[in-house]
Write a structure and sequence with these properties.
The protein has 205 residues and is of the alpha/beta class. It has a domain of 141 residues: Rossmann fold, CATH 3.40.50.10420. It contains eight helices and ten strands. The two termini are 21 Å apart. The structure holds iron/sulfur cluster (SF4).
């Protein structure tokens, strides 16, 4: 673990957020298995990192009650029901757009379903982040998310927003704008309810 990751974890701890570091996907799976007990209800937020690291499949194939928002054929109402059940989940898994070295989590969300359960509800929240998500400041977090993550995410979601053609954010007023909630988490009351697991390398956007 390099000094930047060490410092970030130390500062997350100061903000009551637990921090972990792993070197590989295999190690990541072991840590997650140690944090989520068999039979638990597990929700998830939209995350390319969870997909790339095989965590979503692990949830589907293990003995958890996984609230799978990606299940094919879900109606709008069924998806909304999953979003609401996420608040009562034992564990909620998600990615993050950026983590500042001084220990803050920053996310941009479209309808709030990814970030709302991070703030309140599930007994524990497990955030998985590539070390590429560590930034120097809140300003850099916002810049990185708007100019890199959001346009890539809009493409992934097959949106027809301007950023998918221009490869940059123009702060649009498009009806399908995915950047509605800018959320900075600076700490939490309940120590270690949110846990951040850094995985070495580039993951997600
Ligand atoms: S505000 Fe609009 S243009 Fe900018 S990243 Fe979000 S969806 Fe794309």
């Amino acid at each position: 673990m390099n000094d930047i990751v060490k410092k970030t974890i130390l500062n997350l701890n100061r903000n009551n957020v637990a921090g972990y570091y792993v070197n590989s996907v295999e190690e990541l799976h072991e840590v997650i298995k140690s944090l989520i007990q068999t039979g638990e209800t597990v929700g998830c937020g939209d995350s390319a990192t969870l997909e790339q690291t095989g965590i979503l499949n692990m949830m589907r194939c293990s003995n958890y009650r996984f609230l799978d928002k990606y299940k094919p054929g879900l109606t709008h109402d069924e998806k909304r029901e999953i979003y609401l059940q996420n608040f009562r989940a034992d564990s909620f898994l998600t990615g993050v757009n950026a983590v500042t070295i001084d220990g803050k989590l920053f996310n941009i969300d479209g309808n709030g379903s990814r970030i709302a359960p991070v703030i309140y509800g599930p007994n524990q929240v497990i955030v998985v982040a590539g070390t590429n998500k560590i930034v120097n400041s809140v300003e850099e977090a916002i810049m990185r998310t708007r100019q890199i993550a959001a346009p890539l995410d809009a493409k992934r979601l097959d949106k027809d927003t301007p950023c998918t053609k221009l490869n940059k954010c123009i702060d649009c007023h498009h009806k399908n704008r995915i950047c509605n909630d800018f959320v900075l988490i600076t700490g939490q009351f309940q120590k270690n309810r949110i846990k951040v697991i850094f995985i070495e390398g580039n993951y997600g956007f």
